[in-house]
UniProtKB/TrEMBL annotation:
GO terms for molecular function: peroxidase activity. It comes from the Bacteria. Keywords: Oxidoreductase, Peroxidase. This is DUF3297 family protein. It comes from Sphingomonas koreensis. InterPro entries: DUF3297.
């Protein structure tokens, strides 16, 4: 696996941008210089994140989200499988 997160990722399993394997590694998001833990979806190239709007839900029971525009940085919080093993042998 690569150490670069994808350009777009979502935590919603219904989204075409959902990837459970990448989410298990943990994704860190910095938006406008602040680290955020409440991001539902992001796009680095388009410069936006989606965050939940309180505890409100739509008629299907999914959380309502709001799109915020600004600079987005993303990184993996844990190393890829096998990446840490090579450094431990040295």
């Amino acid at each position: 696996m690569s150490d670069t997160p994808p350009d777009r990722l979502s935590v919603n399993p219904k989204s075409p941008h959902f990837n459970a394997e990448l989410l298990q590694r943990g994704i860190g998001i910095r938006f406008k210089g602040n680290e955020r833990r409440d991001v539902e979806e992001y796009s680095i190239s388009e410069g936006w994140i989606r965050v939940q709007l309180g505890k409100k839900t739509d008629r299907k029971g999914d959380p309502l989200t709001i799109k915020l525009n600004g600079p987005v940085e993303a990184w993996f919080e844990s190393a890829a499988d096998g990446a840490g093993e090579a450094s431990e042998e040295i």
